[in-house]
Design goal:
Its cofactor is FAD. By secondary structure, the protein is an alpha+beta fold. About 55% of the residues lie in helices and about 15% in strands.
């Protein structure tokens, strides 16, 4: 950080996390193990991931001030019975209160810096260069990808560090900053957006478009997790796809509104030529009688 022209930032998010446990039931998983289980509650959430010993690790993500509102075992049980009633019997009340007070809620930090290298002497990778919040599950993957890219560049430049390290910084910084931003966004999506029917509908449309145009429309999670598409390119492509889908919704909605208005007007005016005929009748009447009578809204 003492190096001139070295940019560095860190951000602690206002939410902390706490790990709890769901033990096996009758020697097997207490829930379906092949899923990510999420309890979204808009401003906080709990997730559960399976372990090889048939337990689940539950992680409660919540603002620190909400953790501070639960100083006693009774408060914890009341909170969980209110917001996660189906999880309480799986955890067990006694184990839940024991695990809850085992450790305090832990902070989460996001780190960005630039460049990643110093001359041809050293280079930062993984969390040392780009610690991210855990909500996309890409922290370790991003670190491994750093190593993969570095290895490819070493081969490209014949192990010349004076060429490899600057190129590594240039190549990886946009991607590592992008995955940091995507991880922040995904927390909001997981704890809040998934409760929206409009969001679910939007996701279903995205899946449908991916099914009929698999190389054109690719869901963000698929791009990030199952392809070598660079993180920053995945983010740009995802934003473009959202714009296309939203424009499609707008055009479709406009057509529906226009068509509905047209048929409504037709149903209210069975003789559409009346509006054209009436001014001509006024002219004819004025020529014959010398005056025109206009019906007002208050006349009977």
């Amino acid at each position: 950080m003492k190096k001139p022209r070295f940019d560095y930032s860190q951000q602690y998010i206002p939410h902390g996390y706490m790990e709890l446990t769901i033990p096996p039931r009758n020697g097997d998983f207490a829930m379906e193990p092949n899923y990510l289980h999420i309890w979204p509650r808009n401003t906080f959430m709990m997730i559960a991931l399976p372990n090889k010993n048939k337990t689940f690790t539950c992680t409660l993500f919540m603002p620190f001030e909400e953790f501070e509102k639960l100083p006693t075992s009774r408060d914890v049980l009341d909170f969980f019975h209110k917001y996660f009633p189906d999880a309480v019997p799986l955890m067990g009340e006694q184990a839940l209160t024991r695990d809850f007070f085992l450790l305090p809620a832990q902070p989460m930090i996001s780190v960005k810096c630039s460049p990643f290298h110093f001359k041809s002497r050293c280079v930062l990778m993984g969390d040392a260069a780009h610690a991210i919040v855990p909500f996309f599950g890409q922290g370790m993957n991003a670190g491994f990808e750093d190593c993969l890219v570095f290895d490819e560049l070493m081969e490209k430049f014949n192990n010349d560090l004076s060429m490899c390290l600057p190129e590594f910084s240039r190549f990886r910084i946009p991607d590592d900053h992008a995955v940091s931003d995507l991880s922040m966004y995904n927390y909001v999506e997981m704890r809040a957006h998934v409760n929206s029917r409009w969001f679910i509908f939007h996701k279903n449309v995205e899946r449908f478009l991916h099914a009929i145009m698999p190389s054109t429309f690719i869901p963000l999670y698929t791009m990030v997790t199952f392809t070598r598409i660079r993180y920053h390119e995945a983010m740009l492509r995802w934003r473009w796809q959202k714009k296309v889908i939203n424009k499609g919704f707008f055009i479709f909605g406009t057509l529906i509104a226009t068509g509905s208005t047209y048929f409504l007007i037709r149903s209210m005016a069975p003789r559409p030529l009346d509006y054209l005929r009436r001014p001509w009748d006024w002219v004819t009447n004025f020529q014959n009688t010398g005056h025109v009578s206009l019906k007002t809204p208050w006349s009977h």
